[in-house]
Amino acid sequence: MLITTEVIGYIAATLTTLSFLPQALLTLKTRNTESLSLSMYSLFTTGVLLWLIYGVSISDKAIIFANSITFLLALSILSFKIYNTLRDRQ
Amino acid sequence: MLITTEVIGYIAATLTTLSFLPQALLTLKTRNTESLSLSMYSLFTTGVLLWLIYGVSISDKAIIFANSITFLLALSILSFKIYNTLRDRQ
Question: Signal peptide location in the record (chains A, B) (predicted)?
C-alpha cells in the first residue's frame, strides 16, 4: 500500500469520525432536533456500537478509538432526539 | 477471526451505511434542514468521498460499495442543506 493511500484512509477516518462533533454541538446549543431522523440515529448509533464490539473482538485500537468517539457523539444526538420526540407526544 | 465477529462487522457496516437512507428520505419529504449541521454534512460527505477513493486505491469492493451508497445519500442531504442555507441568506 502506498503511503498516500494510507494517508487518504487516515484523513477519511478522521473526517467521518469528527463530523458528528459539530452536529452534537449544534444540537446541544439549539436543542432543536426537528429535521433529524430518529431512524437514522437509532440505526447509526447501534451500528457504531457494533463497530466498537467488532474492534474489541479483533483488538484493533484504531477501530476502537474512532468508534468510541463517534458512539458518544451519536448517542448524545440520539438522546436529544428521543427526549424531544417523547416530549412532543405528550 | 470467529464467524460471529465477522457477522458483527457486516451488520455494523450495513447499519451505519443504511442509516443515512431514512435521513435522506425525511429531508427529501420535509425539505426541512434547520437542525442539520452544515459542518457535519460537509465534513462527512468529504470523508466518505475519501473512503471511496481509498477503497478504489486498494481495490476493496466492500469499501467501494458501502461508501458509494453513503456518499450519494450524504451528498443529497448536504445539497438540500446548502440550498436552504443560501435561500435563507437572501
Answer: none
Residue written as cell 444540537? A27
Residue A55 amino acid letter? G
- Arithmetic mean of pLDDT over chain B: 95
User: With an 8 Å Cβ cutoff, are A37 and B23 in contact?
Assistant: yes
A54 interaction partners in chain B (CB closer than 8 Å): 5, 8-9, 12
Mean pLDDT to the nearest integer, B31-40: 98
In angstroms, the CA B55 to CA A41 distance is 25
Given A13, A35, A40, which is nearest B35 (Cβ)? A35
Q: Exposed/middle/buried for A11, CB within 10 Å: 0-12, 13-18, 19+?
A: middle
Interface predicted TM-score of the whole assembly (ipTM), two decimals: 0.90
> What's residue B90's pLDDT?
83
Domains and CATH numbers, chain A: 3-89 (1.20.1280.290)
- Please list every residue in chain A whose beta carbon sits closer than 8 Å to the beta carbon of residue B5: 54, 57-58
Min Cα separation B43/chain A (Å) = 5
- Counting every residue, how long is chain B? 90
- CA proximity to B20, closest of B80, B61, B62, B60: B80
Give the pLDDT band of residue B1 (cuts 50, 70, 90). low
